[in-house]
């Protein structure tokens, strides 16, 4: 391979790596975080967002379940890679107390999300997100950004950008194995969270 071709190949590989890492206006690194110890977990902020049927969804509705909370968009390439994984994880683990909840960050809302969800045959609940919700979760600057939330409603892991399927599966299995009872003091933060 000639030097110009090699240079072009390297440049293309670097560009693809940037695109696959995450969709954002600024470069982001992929943080495939392992599950945090219980003592280091913080309550996941609650929210009130509408699903495709217009029903209001609160994170607190999922108390006692392990939740994969995915901030994504229809235009995000890495999101499209992860969505089939999440559909498979929903199928495999739904009966074990696991739920996937997708928070679409598309400006056009259901106009683009409904056809996309139908085309992909998404089998988990979707809601339309907003800036207030994104800020409550630390300012979601890159898509996808995915949170694993334990049965007590606490954030156990955060993945920014495209993470490996294995990282998600391992984290989910670890959290599902914890069957400790959830007390009323362990519910997600119910108060409205204002942007930072």
In short:
Helix content is 34%, strand content 22%. By secondary structure, the chain is α+β, with helices and mostly antiparallel strands. The longest helix has 19 residues, at 3-21.
How does this model look, in words?
The structure is a single chain. This protein has 196 residues and is α+β, with helices and mostly antiparallel strands. It has one domain (3-186): Glutaredoxin (3-Layer(aba) Sandwich). The chain contains five helices and eleven strands. The protein has helices at residues 3-21, 77-93, 110-120, 131-136, 165-177, and strands at residues 23-24, 31-32, 42-43, 48-50, 56-58, 66-72, 98-104, 125-128, 142-143, 145-149, 154-160. Strands 2, 3, 6, 7, 8, 10 and 11 form a seven-stranded mixed β-sheet that branches. A two-stranded antiparallel sheet has the order 1-9. The N and C termini lie far apart (52 Å). The model is unreliable at 1-22, 24-32 and 181-196 (pLDDT under 50).
- Structural Rg: 18 Å
What count of helical segments does DSSP give? 5
**How many strands appear in the DSSP assignment?**
11
DSSP helix fraction:
25-40%
Main β-sheet: number of strands, strand sense, barrel status? 7 strands, mixed
CATH homologous superfamily label: Glutaredoxin
Number of domains: 1
Low-confidence parts lasting 5 or more residues at pLDDT below 50? 1-22, 24-32, 181-196
Which architecture does the CATH hierarchy give at level 2? Answer: 3-Layer(aba) Sandwich
The H/E string reads HEEEEEEHEHEHEEEH
Question: Regarding CATH, which class?
Answer: Alpha Beta
Terminal Cα separation, in Å? 52 Å
Broad shape: globular
CATH fold name, please? Glutaredoxin
Q: What share of the residues does DSSP label as strand, in percent?
A: 15-25%
- State the secondary-structure class: alpha+beta
Overall mean pLDDT stands at 82
């Amino acid at each position: 391979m000639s030097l110009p071709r090699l240079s072009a190949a390297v440049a293309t590989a670097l560009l693809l790596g940037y695109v696959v890492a995450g969709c954002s206006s600024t470069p982001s690194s992929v943080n495939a975080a392992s599950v945090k110890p219980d003592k280091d977990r913080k309550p996941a902020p609650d929210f009130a967002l509408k699903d495709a049927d217009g029903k209001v969804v609160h994170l607190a509705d999922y108390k006692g379940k392990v939740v994969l909370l995915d901030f994504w968009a229809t235009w995000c390439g890495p999101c499209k890679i992860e969505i089939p994984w999440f559909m498979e994880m929903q199928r495999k683990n739904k009966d074990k107390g696991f739920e996937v909840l997708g928070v679409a960050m598309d400006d056009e809302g259901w106009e683009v999300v409904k056809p996309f969800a139908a085309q992909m045959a998404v089998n988990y609940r979707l809601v339309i997100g907003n800036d207030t919700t994104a800020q409550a979760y630390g300012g979601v600057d890159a898509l996808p950004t995915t949170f694993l939330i334990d049965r007590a409603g606490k954030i156990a892991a955060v993945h920014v950008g495209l993470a490996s399927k294995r990282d998600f599966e391992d984290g989910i299995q670890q959290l599902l194995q914890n069957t400790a009872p959830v007390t009323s003091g362990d519910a997600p933060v119910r108060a409205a969270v204002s942007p930072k």
